[in-house]
Write a structure and sequence with these properties.
Blueprint lengths: L1 H17 L2 H19 L7 H12 L4 H12 L8 E9 L3 E9 L2 H14 L3 E2 L9 E10 L5 H11 L3 E4 L3 E6 L4 H10 L6 E8 L3 E2 L2 H16 L3 E6 L1 E2 L2 H8 L1
Length: 249
């Protein structure tokens, strides 16, 4: 699990640095809109919306854009009717992939995702083919030099965290999706900087990936993430650190 979230962090930073600003805004607006539609327009009462707004602010999205997206979700403004869709499949090396998308045309998106899988050596599967290999968890990472382990663990566990592990240069806190925002807020209230925080689909078991398959797999994942409709790509891959560093350089 730690290896997966470590790679997720590297991918997160890469996305922040490389992705086009417009594409990021498109994905964030869709998430805000659908979060508001499903849970209401008050972020204090809607944890998913609150997290989406925080991400939008991290990317310097104008306040007007955020407010319009919320109003479209709640029906106060006319907007596109987005739906959530999950795709499941396998990539190079037998890696299971779970893709979360938000679209206004499921048939179009399905065709695009199938084409990407085919082009990059993967196979789009049937619903339920890989979802059983994942469980939804909140992941929060804090750099080691920001706080000592015992203090952070006490704060996290008191707020409802399930577990905390120590990685090379950061602590990783695991929560249920329900308790994620509560634990995150408890850490922030102590003025502790958070390195990474998100709700992810974490694999129950991982597949070791060779360097050859890793290169193909990451091209597939990059192509999926470049699709405007795709919000998140989750995988059960375990890529050794030396291969990650080599491919990321």
């Amino acid at each position: 699990m730690a290896g997966h979230s470590k790679w997720a962090q590297i991918k997160h930073q890469k996305a922040k640095n490389d992705a086009k600003r417009g594409q990021i805004f498109t994905k964030l607006i869709r998430e805000i809109t659908i979060a508001a539609r499903l849970g209401g327009g008050d972020p204090d009462l809607n944890p998913r919306l609150r997290l989406a707004i925080e991400k939008a602010k991290e990317h310097n999205m104008p306040k007007d854009n955020i407010e319009k997206a919320i109003k479209k979700g709640t029906g106060e403004l006319e907007g596109v009717n987005y739906v959530e869709v999950t795709f499941e499949g396998y990539g190079p090396g037998g890696v299971a992939l779970l893709i979360e998308a938000v679209t206004d045309n499921k048939n179009r998106t399905t065709g695009e995702i199938r084409h990407i899988f085919s082009k990059y050596g993967g196979n789009l599967g049937n619903p339920g083919s890989v979802a059983w290999q994942f469980e939804q968890k909140g992941i929060i990472q804090v750099d080691k030099d920001k706080i000592d382990e015992d203090t952070l663990m006490e704060i996290a566990l008191e707020a409802g965290a399930q577990d905390m592990t120590t990685e090379e240069d950061y602590y990783e806190i695991v929560t249920t999706p329900h308790d994620f925002m509560q634990v995150k807020s408890a850490i922030e209230e102590k003025d502790i900087p958070i390195k990474f925080a998100d709700v992810l689909m974490i694999p129950k078991n991982t597949v070791k990936v060779s360097e050859k398959d890793a290169e193909k797999l990451l091209k597939l994942i990059d192509a999926l993430e470049a699709n405007d409709d795709v919000q998140k790509v989750h995988g059960n891959y375990d890529i050794p650190d030396e291969i990650i560093e080599k491919l990321a350089s």
